[in-house]
Please model this.
Amino acid sequence: MLYSMKISQDIRREHGLSTAEIEEGMAQKAKEFAASGNQVYLPLAD
Model:
């Protein structure tokens, strides 16, 4: 858990993201996930 927190901190420092920008990005990804059917494993395209 501590290692993942360090990675998150490094990304914020490197990209200069504010908490609001991060939350907005997470909300956008949540909408994309819901639109894809809330499935972690999607079927392979033919």
Notes: DSSP finds two helices and no strands in the chain. Residues 19-35 form the longest helix (17 residues). The chain has a mean pLDDT of 82.
